[in-house]
Amino acid sequence: MAKQTLSSPVPSLAPEHISRVNTGLLQWYAQKQRDLPWRTTSDPYAVLVSEIMLQQTQVDRVLPKYQQFLTAFPTLEALAAAPTADVISVWVPLGYNRRAVSLQSIAQQVISRYAGRIPDTIDELLTLKGIGRYTAGAVACFAYRKQVATVDTNIRRVLHRLFLGLEHPEPKVNDAQMLTLAEQVLPPGEAYPWNQALMDLGATVCTSNNPLCMNCPLQTECIAYAEMSQHSLFPSGAVLRQLRKVAEKKPRYQAQPFTSSNRYFRGRIVDLLRSLPPEERLPLSTLGPLIKADFSSAQEDWLQKIVTGLVKDGLLDANEDGVKLP
DNA sequence: AACTCGGGGTG
DNA sequence: CACCCAGAGTT
Description:
By secondary structure, the chain is mostly helical. The protein has 16 helices and two strands. The structure holds a DNA duplex.
């Protein structure tokens, strides 16, 4: 009985096609690669810092903070031993402040469980809370030159367009299948430049909404480009916007404006506490009016819930006297 | 599978 | 204003 425990098969790809794409993209990357500081270091710690920072955050915003962070916390040991409040403070304004706590936690996990050496295999990296499949692959490849595939949003989009066609109205493969595809097209011995090249192309040419197909070195090899060429709304940007619009299921608009969202006030609270002298606590009765002009006693439960959430994420230290950064 | 988690840049 | 982004953990 064939049970479907394994992931569904990936559409088969022509070896000649893969080879031409490999050659073309690597050649393009050799000429056009972006000059990024984490590409010139061999320090696994620096690579780890860059990868955590780059999660859901554009390169341009990470660049200055990457240098500042490494100056403040030059080594894994320095980061692990630092006051968490300092790590959270240096993190501004990258957002997703949990990542700051998580990054320090990873440093502490590496010291306690791996004798201070960041692991070089995906399986070991995945045992660290805060590292998922993408970051595990990125660290293994970019810090240790392991010949492994890894898939982020750029790579997912680029590989889909090159080998499967347009990702709209819906992707032709799921995440597990895309990882398998990425492994199948990985050029032997070239994992580092290949993975970097895919992300460079995705960030600068094969962008999400308005791809610059006219500048693409793989135009003649791209399934999606061929599909778009037959579309009445060609060029590419108009095609993608149209397909995305058609595919849109529900507006699922925000019922409330962002400035009244839970997320907004979490940010306000952390930002406020960053400006406080170290170890000084702020009573909730003071905190409420500071983050919300019309704060009333009826909203104490609401505030308490947000505080509890922040504590759970390791972003806040709360006791009966009030709250501060941990 | 769907939600949550920031914040700045862009058209 | 809407959408985007080198994801991961939780429910």
